[in-house]
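Posting this for the archive.
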Amino acid sequence: MMRRTIHDNHTHQRDALGQPRAGVAPRTGRRLHSWVRNALAFFVAMVALALLLEIGLRLALRSNDAQALVYPRRATAINGFGSGDFPQRTPEGELRILLLGASAFVTGDFPARFERLLNDSQQARQWGKRVRVVSTGVAAHMTFDSLWKYRDWYEGYDFDLVVVYHGINDVRANCYPKHLFRSDYAHMPYFQQYAQVFHWMERQPALARSFVITWVYKLVVRASVQMAPAFQRRAPYNDPRNDPWLPEGADVKTGPTFERNVEAIVELAHTRGQKLLLLTYAWYLPDDYTNARFRTRQLDYSFTEDSVPVEVWGLPENVALALDVHNASVRRVASRHATSGDEVHFFDMERAIPKDGAHFIDVCHWTDRGVAEFTRGVEAVVREIFFRPASPPPVDSAAGSAIGR
């Protein structure tokens, strides 16, 4: 009986020719209509979510350039963004200095000491301005890091002077076989997660305008790097005791990349109308250096808990060779811009800080005396740039009066 009722209801929907009655949609049509409606609703919801996310990312980063999304900004007190008092425009009566570097600009509370030394100097009291130091210093960061920070983090921020101080961390990138080395440092997993995204943005400029698409692509790349098997990540790890590739550092491959990155920072400063100070890298390696003597504190260093063995960057002789190459690059860039009107200034810090244990706690980090020498060097340049007394007008000896009056 039940089967007949169902059958009768089913056949009742059709006419004598077996066709569906007018105004009655077949079940398959209703299902198709429902599927299209749900798909359309899902699509609209996803578009709305993407638009909200796009707007949110732009507002959060305060930028319309998706490159700012690739290299994440971390707010700390020393880089300005975590201080709670870091306006884009330099306040009246303040001279703002940006330090682009690595651990030398953070070890031993360097930014605060450097700022205090500058402000306590006799010259600063005569200037009548308070010096504000902003430091990007993070241990192990390289020239790529400083370029990306300056380009993306500090877009729209005023600086009276930008100081560039790099040298030793890029040396570490040499400790790979030549066939694995890449000029974008993507042979190192840390840089691979960024370089791959930046390259994609260059190849796909239209897609790269979208923060959402760039963000999704960045997450995919980062996951692929972090989830890769250990053998695909390749040595070296940051442990010199188990690094089979330290001898590869004898072939200094980083010179062109280092110079290109410094040059890119110079060009960016010129575009922003900001004065730049290039410094050579100060370092000290005692003649009798060995890792064993370092570990037993038998070297001419003022050892502290922050002292680091040179093998973190490579074998001693290879590190010295690469530092010479990098310092030569800084000197070349400074020389190219010496008369260009780009407001590029230069100070040879390598030759200014004495190479002895009174000034160094290891190959590249300073004692208090080293910090004082560094400060004196920068102070001399600041005085020359901003507080040089105005030259008297030329005098016409015949008339005994100033020309142009």
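Residues 1-7, 393-405 have pLDDT under 50 and may be disordered. The two ends are 121 Å apart (CA to CA).
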